[in-house]
Amino acid sequence: MTKFKTIIEPFKIKAVEPIKFTTEEEREEILRKAGYNVFNIPAEDVIIDLLTDSGTNAMSSKQWAGIMDGDESYAGSRSFFRFEKVVKRITGFKHVIPVHQGRAAEKILFSIVAGPGKFIPNNTHFDTTRANIEFVGGTAVDLPIPEGVQPDVWHPFKGNMDVERLENFIKEKGPENIPLVMLTVTNNSNGGQPVSMKNIREVKEVCSKYGIPLFLDACRFAENAYFIKKREKGYENKSILEVVQEMFSYADGCTMSAKKDAFANIGGFLALNDDELAIKARNVLIVTEGFPTYGGLAGRDLEAIAQGLEEVIDENYLVYRIRSVEYLAEKLIERGIPVLIPPGGHAVYLDARRFAPHIPPEQFPGQSIVVELYRVGGIRGVEIGSVMFGRKDKETGKFIPHTMELVRLAIPRRVYTQSHIDYVVEVITEVYKNRDKLKGYRIVWEAPLLRHFTARFEPIE
Ligand code: F0G
């Protein structure tokens, strides 16, 4: 950008939203009422909200202008055609099906292709992806590379899939039982880690060999493309658009949550090449989401998404984005706080096993840290560990922990400034200093699916 080393936000702030401040005593009471589950806390009572980067982004003035300009026609809306054109330019897929958010695309796709006896391999399934596969009776299988589940091991593309394991898995289960293979870019559940172009290509080769389609879970495709440009040989002089187009060129379709790398507050799409599958998908769409030219969205949302997709592939934005996440990780590492390395594209992940080694996985060390960050500084993060993914063995009832115990601090796009992040560093440092006092938690109530959203906890005294 310039010869100066300070990377500045590539935008000015036009509208602001006040933050309400609470005291530690107030937050203690709020936590108790929320059953020590930060999903149950009113957002107004959160000072810095790092629960998710999903739907929490700041839209640009051009996106807001698009909101005013949206065409709300039921069929054939002008906003749909703009949206479709942008999605096609980026992904190259033939059919573009708008939906109200990413999981709606997953629901449609898996209700058509998955079911009992069907297996869906992924580098690592996000929780809703896994849930949608399991909901129709299918089996979701995670096949990350070994480095992908070791928080303290550096690897440029920790989101990669283990290609050898994939091929063995296909041979073992039979290609006829694997309706599609998925790659999540970036790999959210293992640290927002990127997948290399080489890996996408190799996964595609295996898929082609057995006649299995490849789908991308593309929520954070632009962040993934930026990592490819920075870390993979041969891509340094390509534009982000070129990298993105090559990534999608190896896939037969994608699911997308526009709440991430499209800067929208709601929306998503399913895009694919197969005509027959598209007909089936549109049939489900009409029953559950809406007419094919609006899906579950208003015309104005389609405008915001189209504009957002154009903005996210701007390299100046991505330089700032990835650096601002790295900045937080760097400060924590300097203070000796265990974080997953390298930092991901959309979030910094604390390694709860090393942060609170005295709390065993069955007492949820990540949950304990999440609660403490809120109590001490009003910061809301999210546990990605055994609360979210731990399970009981169906036969023995024995607790099976998740591969990692993480606390994700997701950074909403274009929302917080450097001083907000410096405050976050200070709070985490304080919690880390007093880490010996962190307590384990037990679940006192849980739902059968996606329990982390609504579970209630109590501290183990
Ligand atoms: N796939 C990935 C990789 C995701 O991270 C998400 C959402 C989805 C699919 C589902 O999309 O929310 O629009 O239905 N992730 C959010 C998060 C919720 O906090 O990471 P959605």
TrEMBL record:
The modification N6-(pyridoxal phosphate)lysine is found at K260. GO terms for biological process: aromatic amino acid metabolic process. Residues 49-425 form the Aromatic amino acid beta-eliminating lyase/threonine aldolase domain. Keywords: Lyase, Pyridoxal phosphate. It comes from the Bacteria. One of its GO terms (molecular function) is carbon-carbon lyase activity. Its cofactor is pyridoxal 5'-phosphate. Belongs to the beta-eliminating lyase family. NCBIfam families: PRK13238.1. This is Tryptophanase.
